[in-house]
Amino acid sequence: MAYSHVAHDCIIGNNCIIANSVQIGGFVEMDDFAIIGGCTPIHQFCKVGMHCMVGGGFRIIKDVPPYILAGDEPLHYAGLNTIGLRRRGFSNEEIVTLKNVYHLLYESGMNISQAKEKILKNYSGSQHALDVVDFINRSKRGLIPR
User: Fold this and answer.
1) Residue 40 in contact with residue 22, Cβ under 8 Å?
2) Structural domain spans, the chain
């Protein structure tokens, strides 16, 4: 949209929505169907996961995992992007699996390595759960907090 900037060496996936005045630093990777609200700066080298939605005006300085809502200052996990996932045709079973995955990651008290191990053990049959683990493995700047 108007006044947005995508810097050098960025990778922007398909069907992303980048609202007005979003400023994307160099080497940012944005996966498919990500939605970024207006006036949001994205720090260089950050990753933004698929099917996530980031509220307008919040700085992205860490990696934003797939399938979630992110907002507030400092930017943090605000739940699953349930409405967006339903609009994209995700089944109730897939949504429940993702809720369980993010419960392990953000609400169980485990560190990321422990949560990742448990996700792989309990949800290895879910492609979406594997997408979350893959994103964690690709993360260099660390994930946004709870």
Assistant:
1) yes
2) 1-146
C-alpha to C-alpha distance for 107 and 86, rounded to whole angstroms: 23
What pLDDT score was predicted for residue 44? Answer: 98
* pLDDT on residue 15: 98
CA-to-CA dists, residue 108 to 48, 100, 134, angstroms: 23, 10, 20
pLDDT at 100: 98
Backbone angles phi, psi at 55, to 5 degrees: -65, 160
Residues in the chain: 146
Residue spans of the chain under pLDDT 50: none
- Tell me the CA distances in angstroms from 51 to 8, 15, 85, 122, one per residue in order: 23, 10, 7, 22
The predicted structure's pLDDT at residue 110: 97
* Active centre residues (catalytic): 8-9, 26
* Topology (CATH) of 1-146: Udp N-acetylglucosamine O-acyltransferase; Domain 2 (1.20.1180)
